[in-house]
Design a protein that fits this description.
The complex is a heterodimer of chains A (83) and B (182).
Chain A lengths: L2 H5 L3 H7 L4 E9 L2 E8 L11 H13 L7 E5 L7
Parallel strand pairs in A: 2-3
Antiparallel strand pairs in A: 1-2
Chain B lengths: L28 E6 L5 H16 L2 E7 L15 H10 L2 E7 L2 H16 L4 E6 L3 H10 L6 E5 L8 H10 L1 H8 L5
Parallel strand pairs in B: 1-2, 1-3, 3-4, 4-5
Classes of the chains: A alpha+beta (83), B alpha/beta (182).
Chain lengths: 83, 182
């Protein structure tokens, strides 16, 4: 577990996103701004996953249950990198 | 002490109000709007039938949300022709299942559109996705959407169990869809 992982508990979001075959990884925590990368664990479920513009506020709310001061979440979405 | 606010968050949608709920469901027409998720129609149709039997309402329409009700994509909004049928053939609506990310987003959008059209509408979600439904409801401008929360998952659960969950939801549905006490 990295220092960032200890600083930001992702489990409240992972518990929900796991049902859609999604995992999140913390890239870095810049003050109260979290940069995350999304991994599609089950690619066949890609349509189930929220579009990024909806996903970011949902993940922010979920992560605020363990870190109320968190202000912003940015998610790198592999679906947006596909041709 | 001076408080400083950072004006750097995205602007939210202006809040809109829910439709007025009837005093009771006696004589009311209940519609089921199915997004095609596994077991969504099973649990919602049973819930609507039990609710109708208990209250003196009728189940007037069970339809998928795609054009002409022939198909459903849970990651798209309700088709225009189905929305028109709902507004003319129903007094209250139950829709879902909001048990994945995208289907929760579009089910929430659908209930907000129905409420704004004057139809009280319940989104059927699950324990796992209720926080998602709550956050999206607030972000889409109606924080107090009517949400029926069932156990997770619906898909893969046997029919007898789904019927138990549906039957057990009757009191909650009455509370969500009417101004009736208890």
């Amino acid at each position: 577990m990295s220092m960032d992982d200890r600083e930001l508990d992702l489990s409240p979001a992972l518990d929900v996103l796991d049902a859609d075959g999604v995992s999140l990884e913390l890239v870095n925590l810049d003050g109260e701004v979290a940069h995350l990368t999304m991994h599609l664990v089950d690619p066949e479920c890609a349509d189930c996953v929220l579009p990024r513009e909806y996903l970011e506020p949902v993940v922010l709310e979920l992560l605020r249950t363990s870190r109320p001061s968190l202000r912003t979440v940015h998610i790198s979405d592999p679906r947006e990198q596909q041709p | 002490m001076t408080q400083i606010y950072l004006p750097d968050s995205a602007p939210g949608q202006p809040a809109s109000a829910r439709a007025a709920a009837p005093r009771s469901l006696a004589g009311q027409r209940i519609a089921v709007l199915d997004n095609g998720k596994p077991n969504a129609a099973v649990v919602m149709t049973r819930a609507a039938e039990t609710l109708a039997e208990r209250t003196g309402a009728t189940v007037s329409l069970v339809t998928r949300k795609g054009p002409h009700g022939r198909s459903a994509n849970a990651a798209e909004p309700v088709a225009r022709d189905i929305l028109e049928r709902l507004t003319s053939e129903a007094d209250v609506v139950m829709t879902g299942a909001a048990d994945c990310g995208s289907c929760t987003a579009y089910s929430v959008k659908d209930v907000i559109e129905l409420e704004e059209s004057g139809l009280p509408a319940v989104v059927v979600t699950t324990t796992r996705f209720e926080p998602v439904a709550a956050t999206l409801s607030a972000n889409f401008g109606m924080p107090d959407t009517r949400r029926l929360v069932l156990p997770h998952p619906l898909g893969g659960t046997d029919e007898a169990t789904l019927h138990e969950w549906a039957d057990a939801a009757t009191d909650r549905l009455i509370g969500l869809l009417t101004t009736e006490e208890g």
